[in-house]
Amino acid sequence: MPFLELHNLKTHFPVTSGLLFKKEIDRVRAVDGVTLSLQKGEILGLVGESGCGKSTLSRTVMQLIAATEGDVVLEGKNLAELPAREIRRHRINFQMIFQDPYASLNPRMTVFSALAEAVRRRHDLKGAPLEAHVSGLMRTVGLDPAFMKKYPHEFSGGQRQRIAIARALAPEPKLILADEPVSALDVSIQSQILNLLLKLRRELDLTMIFISHDLAVVKYVADRIAVMFQGKIVELGPAEELFDNPQHEYTRKLLAAIPRITAE
Ligand SMILES: Nc1ncnc2c1ncn2[C@@H]1O[C@H](COP(=O)(O)OP(=O)(O)OP(=O)(O)O)[C@@H](O)[C@H]1O
Ligand SMILES: [Mg+2]
Asked: Angle formed by the axes of helices 127-140 and 111-119, to 10°?
């Protein structure tokens, strides 16, 4: 059984006219019939140009937006069939990592408070056991627990993304949705964070959808790559294969657009 299955998933946004009696005059087909599946422990790269529907797809998978049509099936359970209360409970199984860790961390919360709050969504811990748990999380993402009483602004960009990753891991999610997680970081820091994600996948058997507009980054972390174009997956295959032998014209265009940096 696949770990996660999407069946003909559609998310349309209505475009309306009229002030009082809103009439749908058109719709944005942000996600328009996506079918794919992920195995446990797999990293699926999702690439495509700005506005093609990558973030909408991930928010629909997380049940943050209701799908217009189609199903999200996690470990054989169709999430659309769960009652609203169950969906809220289920949401901790999906955690996101965003592009800008500074925007996603509360500046008035210490690292300890931010991580403790996230841990307590899953475990009823307090006092010394909670502190030990937070220390363990910090070590897992390569941060020194001695800094747990510091605030986000006291860390570098790369360290802040480590905090955001620790916070995403804290409630022990089943699926991580990483939306451009390294796009805001310096190139040298990017590879450290990508290596951390790969280490976590090995150690924790994490399953991840990794969204990026940067094909080189996606090739480095993903097992398979899905190419999205105007709400649809136009090509999906093993990362190496997709690079070496792209089938779809749009994939070839994307590949041709990768800047090649060569030493003189
Ligand atoms: N809440 C919304 N209401 C109406 N339209 C929306 C909404 N959210 C997204 N859209 C539209 O859906 C389409 C897909 O947007 P989405 O943010 O998913 O793209 P994306 O692939 O993540 O782009 P980017 O690479 O720039 O992040 C766009 O045309 C966008 O304008
Ligand atoms: Mg997006």
From this structure: 100
